[in-house]
Structures are given as C-alpha cells and as structure tokens.
Amino acid sequence: MQRMTGQPERWTQATVYPDMWADPADDPRDNGDSPEGEFATLLDFLTNYRMTLRMKCEGLDPEQLARRSVPPSTMSLLGLLRHLAEVERDWRNWITDGDALPKLYGRKDADFDGAVAEQAVVDAAYADLEREQAATDAALAGYPDLGERVGRERIAIRELMVHRVEEYARHCGHADLLRECVDGRVGQ
Q: Domain 24-29+43-183 falls in which CATH fold?
C-alpha cells in the first residue's frame, strides 16, 4: 500500500506484539534459554543478528533489495549482504599471519556500488555471505581461548567476536530503516 506521496504505508506481519517483525511462535531466532559460557553467548547473539538481517531481506525482489536509501548514500539491503560477506573475509585477515585474502568484490566500496538489481547478483551475494560466514566461523573455532591474541595485529579473539556482533547489530539497524523505505514493513 502506498500513500499519495509515494511512500509505503507502515505495517507489520506480527499480530501478538505490533512492534515485532514476526509473532513469537513464527520467529525462527532462538528465544529459549541463554547459552552457557562467553563464547556460546557471543555466537548466539551473532547467529540471531545474522538471521535478523536475512529476515529483513526476505520476500523482496532484486530491485527492492538493490534500492538505495537516501542520496548520496549507496546503502541498500543487497549492498549490506555484500558488505558483510566482504567483512567476514576481512576478519579472517585479522587473525592470520600469512598473506591477506584479496577483497571479494575488488576495489573499496564495490560491495555497495556493485549491488545492482539483477537476480544473479542477489544469488551470488547470498552464496558469498554464507561461504564467508562459514569460513570465518571455522577459522575462529580453532581458538577456544577468547583471550588469545592472534594475527599480525595481535587481536584478542574476544575483541574480534564482540566486533562481529557489533557490526551485524549496527547493520541490522540500517536494514530496519531500509526495509521500511522499501515496502513499509516494520519490526525489530
């Protein structure tokens, strides 16, 4: 539904709590007991933010996913998917002593600039994100001591894990606003 101004009407799919994205029974994020331990807690938050980002992108076509926010910003939901794939790859560079992996999309800002409304670009973005997340998760699983300092910069695993949660949380906030601009859907 669109107003006369061309802006979409705000709406939610939730019926139990109108400020939520989905009703509790339909929410795929883990809302059960808190995990035990620091690493498990960080992974739980990261997993839920990753899922939230995907939920914000669900049901949209390539044009909607690639729609930019407000000029001169290049931010879009598709750009966020590509950006986070790039960031996951870069986090692996933080923990290595070897040669850095090349940028996934080439030059700086190509993650957002290349987020064009084509199904092949959308499919590749999802595949890239899933692959890079799995690779980073696997690399970090080799460091059970959160205080261990690794890589050229000697970053603590804990710091990297917290940074991952922060990065996804910040971009989920962007995704909230982007989705509302696309079709008016609101919710946490």
A: Four Helix Bundle (Hemerythrin (Met), subunit A) (1.20.120)
